[in-house]
Design brief:
The complex is a heterotrimer. Chain A contains eight helices and no strands. By secondary structure, chain A is mainly α. Chain A has two domains: 123 residues, Four Helix Bundle (Hemerythrin (Met), subunit A); 46 residues. The model of chain A has no long low-confidence stretch (mean pLDDT 77). Chain B has a two-stranded antiparallel sheet. Chain C has 14 helices and no strands. Chain C is globular. The two termini of chain C are 35 Å apart. Helix content of chain C is 65%, strand content 0%. Chain C is mainly alpha-helical. Chain C has one domain. Chains A and B meet through helix 4, helix 5 and helix 7 of A and helix 2, helix 5, helix 6, helix 7 and helix 9 of B.
Chain lengths: 170, 503, 372
């Protein structure tokens, strides 16, 4: 009962805010509306017993990425003469088609059962996640590769954002 | 198996990746310590040195037994060969970049670093049977490519190209991730090999539509990387906007890695739904028929689009972009057969494509160094003055068209045979037709080189000679021309496909 | 409901206490909801009192540092009722919403800011049994939830439609997003020492031995002291306290992001500032300075006095750190925004990374030597 109520609450929050983000005229307000979507997703993760993931979602997306998105939006000139109607139409069409196409399949879908049983984690997933990240035949390699991805992103971003050669700046 | 290996034994299998990682860190630190701005060439030699070491380690691993290490890295002939493909292609791109006299000296250290990172991403992309690692490899490759595309940030066209590439690329990889997560949700595993069982089971139960949706989504991601028909829009703008060496990198290394990964994904995860060679037909399901038709239509549309759009291009890089779209269509034809012969032909063709496309981009670079222009007009009258490079160009063009004495002909021949025998004769005929169409635009380049009078503006006053570039072109041309290596290549591709199919 | 277990784990949360009061048939989610209401009320009262006391304290500290008395009249003894008077004034002030402001954002912002700060209190252990929910995630939860306040500040700055406010918001975005990195990294040292993210667990591990188990006095003290200094510096920046109070620097930006706010909405921002200060100080106390433990206090364990005394110890220790923050504010001049960024990225972050490396080697060696 409680879980079902919470699910619908988070679903309404996620989808409502996503729609708001899509349809709002002002792009900065759209970005603020994303906050609800991101927090709603975090709520889903809580319901799925993924506590660490939920908090990571809040920390990284709400506290980090959204702030950076807003930072970027505030630094760019606002777009005022947007054609709003077209966007709404596209959105409705995409969502409608997606829902129609997926509904039949989703009803018949057999989701993997083991995944559901594993959800009943006794307490906390942090320790397990940490150990899995460093275990050799588990997620060690992707974990390390992720750092290379981030390094490449960092180098690229810093290079492109840098004004000129650094020594001329100082 | 993997569990029996000690940590160091497991590490031995990924030593090439380790060497590459050390190399990219070394290049980054070297750049950080101030080498980048003053002595860009040394960084290139450092990168080439580490790439060479990586290649040596890879060659050493060619004969090794197949193994799965770290739970998800697959070391088999297909992976090793394609790692060599990527490493050598990146090495040549670095050499091209050194020979490019028209670029600013700025950002060289970052360029080397990002090229090595991209190569590392490609290594993991072609060498894994796990969707997470596959995605991470794809992202490493993608993220580095986005940054590489924008490395000349003061160039408006380059900045625009980079932005387009990032936006489309992010969208495509997001869609791919949706598909992968649906597959994971339904099968409960990220390993392609275990997923295969689920897919057969699901299709047998009549839930093929359920399998089709994630398959389509994953195809979008690969379609973007390979610039297949509905997802190819970025390619011409990006290729034209970025510098020629980077365009060559995107056209060759990035595409080759994506093709190998796609073949592995289809051959492993969908192995239960494939037709393994001509004699082991599985009962055809609706799913298989639909999948074949989908891939075949994509392939046909890609060839048509690439070749027809290339007809009217004036800019050489844009022309080559469309031509590389067309070639992606040919390679997809092999994949669409969904059988051993098709995979083998596609992989073999990707090597031919590697030689001739790198050669063609090298040609653009060579003549742009001389004339300062990347348009077809810039080539006017260049033939008689640069006979060697012009002859090499003719070889590349003949091979790209698929004319008989070159490797391009054999590659295309095997693809067409595979398609014909695999039940797609119309696609084989379309390929032949498209080859004729491509003759028109490739011939325009040849005509510009030899049959057009020199214009007054052409030669730059102190046009540098680039003997290294000329040498590379000559070697590539020789490789393209001499078709003796084609049988061994096909055999190697066979071994690669076998390893994947019978994993 | 097993899914919610990690969020109300093991034995000393408020919900478990409530479960003991009701018959067994009452569903978990009703208890949870009830617990949430009670927790909210408790935290709200605590933060209100805290904010009132802190404003008074801040003015007294400022006064004495500047060789004057500060408030002396209201209420008699050292102007103790000054804060109450201020609070009443704020409550009855006109609530102004500007005509040109983005009304929705303008109104949501203060609630978001205060709400996020209050939510973080859920994981604070005031005493061995005085915690709303002993989360397994502990300090990570606090970091994550309080990072949402940044968004509230940006929302306020944007919604006010005022250039000072927007400048303040931009500075806040740049500053807080940057300092989250050293803040999180500096917490890694105690986390490695305790092997847990839970503040409650940290408190339990620092008990006994007359305070010698406090992290700052432990065998890892040489890591504890620099990491605390880094943590405290980053915490000052995170809570927008001087010398990092760029988002509201009154000499340039009037009042930064809350320039346009008045009345109750202004007081929300005000309460958030003190709540955040207390929160960071409490995390510092729990991880470095023995949480609710005090030499000799454990002798009282089991008696009725123990729990209230433990809570008092915790609050007093935290308030001492809050006092240090005030002390810093009134003695150190504000630095420029580029200096703030330089300090965060070029000094704090690398230093934190070095410490993380040293700490991981040290804790690993300790574990290896003791065979744990």
């Amino acid at each position: 009962m409680g879980e079902v109520l919470a699910f619908w609450f988070f679903a309404a929050l996620t989808i409502g805010c996503a729609l708001l983000a899509l349809l709002h005229r002002n792009v900065v307000n759209s970005a603020f509306a994303l906050l609800g979507t991101l927090l709603g997703l975090a709520g889903f993760y809580v319901l799925l017993a993924a506590d660490f993931l939920a908090m990571t979602q809040v920390l990284i997306y709400a506290g980090g990425i959204l702030v950076l998105i807003l930072f970027g939006l505030m630094l760019t000139p606002p777009v005022t003469n947007e054609r709003r109607f077209g966007r709404i139409l596209v959105a409705v069409a995409v969502v409608g088609l997606g829902a129609v196409a997926f509904w039949e399949k989703a009803r018949g879908a057999v989701w993997h059962a083991a995944a559901r049983e594993e959800l009943a984690a006794p307490a906390g997933t942090v320790r397990e996640i940490g150990l899995e990240f460093l275990r050799r035949d588990s997620w060690l390699l992707p974990f390390e590769l992720a750092s290379v991805v981030l390094l490449a992103g960092l180098v690229g971003a810093v290079y492109i954002a840098r004004r000129r050669f650094p020594r001329e700046d100082v | 198996m993997a569990d029996a290996l000690s940590y160091l034994d497991a590490l031995k299998y990924i030593l090439p990746e380790v060497a590459l990682t050390i190399g990219l860190c070394a290049v980054l630190i070297w750049d950080l310590l101030g080498g980048g701005a003053d002595r860009p060439r040394e960084g290139a030699w450092l990168s080439l040195g580490f790439l060479g070491l990586t290649c040596l380690l890879l060659i050493q691993r060619l004969g090794w037994q197949e193994a799965t290490v770290f739970g998800m890295v697959r070391v088999d002939p297909l992976a090793t060969v394609f790692k060599l493909f990527i490493a050598t292609a990146v090495g040549l791109v670095i050499a091209f970049d050194l020979a490019d006299r028209r670029q600013p000296a700025e950002g060289k250290g970052e360029t080397w670093f990002l090229l090595l990172t991209a190569a590392l991403g490609g290594f993991f992309l072609v060498g894994t049977g796990n969707l997470i690692l596959l995605y991470l490899g794809l992202e490493t490759l993608g993220l580095s490519s986005y940054a590489l595309a924008g490395i000349h940030k003061r160039d408006r066209a380059g900045a625009e190209a980079s932005l387009k590439y990032v936006v489309y690329g992010a969208l495509a990889s997001g869609v791919l991730l949706f598909g992968a997560s649906l597959l994971y949700g339904m099968s409960g595993t990220l390993e392609m090999r275990e997923m295969a069982r689920f897919l057969v089971f699901a299709v047998d139960e009549g839930r093929s539509a359920q399998v089709l949706l994630p398959t389509l989504l994953i195809l979008v991601g690969f379609g973007f990387k390979l610039s297949l028909f509905p997802f190819q829009w970025w390619a011409p703008d990006v290729y034209q906007g970025v510098s020629t060496p980077i365009a060559a990198f995107l056209a060759v290394a990035s595409k080759g890695a994506a093709l190998a990964a796609l073949v592995r994904l289809i051959a492993v995860a969908y192995s239960g739904l494939l037709r393994l060679g001509p004699d082991t037909f599985l009962p055809e399901t609706d799913f298989t028929r639909g999948f074949v038709l989908l891939l075949a239509l994509m392939s046909a549309a890609t060839m048509l689009f690439g070749n027809l759009a290339a007809l009217r291009q004036e800019n050489l890089k844009r022309l080559l972009a469309y031509s590389s779209i067309g070639h992606a269509g040919y390679m997809l034809m092999g994949v669409a057969v969904l059988g051993e012969a098709g995979f083998r032909a596609a992989l073999a063709y990707s090597f031919v494509y590697y030689l001739m496309t790198l050669g063609a981009f090298g040609m653009v670079l060579y003549f742009a160094n001389q004339s300062g222009s990347e348009d077809i007009r810039g080539l006017h009258g260049m033939g008689p003055r640069h006979p060697l490079a012009a002859t090499a160009t003719i070889v590349f063009l003949a091979s790209l068209t698929g004319l008989p004495p070159t490797a391009g002909f054999f590659g295309k021949w095997y693809l067409m045979v595979a398609a014909w025998e695999g039940g797609l004769p119309w696609l084989a005929l379309l390929t032949a037709l498209m080859s004729v169409v491509s003759l028109f635009y490739y011939f325009r380049i040849a005509r510009a080189l030899f049959l057009r009078p020199e214009e007054e503006a052409t030669p730059l006053p102190d046009a540098p000679r680039t003997p290294v570039l000329g040498g590379i072109l000559a070697v590539l041309a020789a490789g393209t021309l001499v078709f003796l290596w084609f049988e061994p290549l096909l055999a190697a591709a066979s071994v690669g496909v076998e390893a994947v199919l019978h994993w | 409901m097993s899914a919610l277990l990690p969020f109300a784990a093991a034995g000393n949360g408020l919900t478990d206490w409530l479960a003991g009061l009701f018959p067994a048939g009452v569903p978990f989610w009703i208890l949870g909801l009830l617990g949430a209401v009670i927790a909210f009320a408790l935290i709200m009262v605590f933060v209100s009192v805290l904010a009132m006391f802190s404003t008074w304290l801040e003015r007294k500290v400022a006064g004495h540092i500047q060789v004057r008395y500060g408030p002396m009249r209201v209420g008699g003894w050292h102007g103790w009722a000054q804060a109450i008077a201020d609070g009443v004034k704020l409550l009855i002030k006109e609530d102004i919403v500007l005509a040109d402001a983005d009304r929705a954002l303008f109104k949501i912002a203060p609630c978001l800011v205060l709400g996020a700060a209050l939510a973080a209190f859920v994981a604070l252990p005031f005493g061995p049994n005085a915690i709303v929910a002993d989360l397994d995630l502990g300090v990570f939860f606090i970091l994550a939830v309080s990072s949402v306040t940044t968004l509230g500040v940006i929302m306020a700055g944007w919604g006010s439609n005022n250039k000072w406010s927007l400048y303040g918001a931009m500075r806040e975005a740049a500053q807080v997003a940057s300092y989250e990195i050293p803040l999180g990294l500096s917490l890694m040292m105690p986390v490695m020492y305790y092997g847990s993210l839970s503040l409650h667990r940290a408190g339990e591990m620092q008990a006994d031995w007359f305070g010698l188990h406090w992290y700052v006095f432990s065998d890892s003290f040489w890591l504890a002291i620099p990491s605390f200094i880094l943590f405290f510096t980053a915490a000052l920046a995170e809570t927008k306290r001087s010398p990092f109070d760029l988002p509201e620097s009154e000499s340039e930006l009037v009042a930064g992001f809350h320039t346009e706010y008045s009345g109750i909405r202004f007081s929300f921002f005000f309460m958030e500032e003190y709540a955040a200060m207390y929160l960071m100080s409490a995390v510092g106390t729990a991880f470095w300075f023995g949480a609710w433990n005090f030499p000799g206090l454990e002798l009282l364990a089991g008696s009725a006095l123990y729990a209230p005394l433990a809570v008092t110890v915790f609050v007093v220790k935290s308030m001492i750190l809050v006092f240090v923050m005030m002390w810093v504010r009134w003695t150190v001049p504000r630095i420029r925004i580029d200096q703030v960024m330089t300090m965060g990225y070029k000094y704090l972050t690398p230093l934190c990374l070095i410490l993380v490396f040293l700490a991981s080697v040290w804790e690993w060696a300790k574990a290896a030597l003791t065979g744990a």
